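This section describes the prediction task in plain terms. A model, or a person checking by hand, is given the sequence of a single protein chain and must write out its three-dimensional structure as a string of tokens. No templates, partner chains or ligands are provided. The sample shown here is typical of the held-out split.
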Amino acid sequence: MESHHIWVVDRSKLFREGLKMLLSDSPFEVTYEVPYLTLIDENTDRREKPALVLVAVQTPLTPGSEEEVGLVHLCRSWGDTPVVVLSDAMSVSQLKAAMKAGARGYLLRDITPDALKQSLLLVLLGEKVLPTDLVSILVDGCELRIPNNGEAIAADLSPREKLILRCLAHGHPNKVIANELNITEGTVKVHIKAVFKKIRARNRTEAAIWALNHGFDTDV
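The expected answer:
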């Protein structure tokens, strides 16, 4: 199993140790940890850059705050390394601030271990990840390049494509979708490409928002 090195920023030593244990049987390995964002640049020139940086924020990401400035600096200076924010706050403003800073993901600290692993894998695949509940809140005000005739498009989707959409709404990676639907990952990719074309979504996040907005949010 390929190992992806990640760095963790969190004030709690207990949390960092717990995270390392949770990820011990996953494709991720915590190879460096610091309690504060301001410390992440110190002595890192002697370390190989990680595949991903997981940053736990403790205070609101208001403009000019220490954590906001540190997050912006990290995302800009390490543009080729995805940064994922971990937060206690189910907050649209926090989500927007994190994404504006350049983060590729915004997750809640009460996320399940399996969901965390899947979310980090999606980020490495180039996707942006965020809590489904926050997606639901954003749906009404989110302007996506998708058509308004959702009912007509939904009717044009095949039963398999509808199942794919439900899986995307739940944030499932291709491997999980393939296992759940008993098909190959290659077939999953073909179905996802077809779904994107039909609903005019550019990525998995937009597809998940479309699915939530059109009733595809029930369990598969």
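For orientation: The first strand starts at residue 4 and ends at 9.
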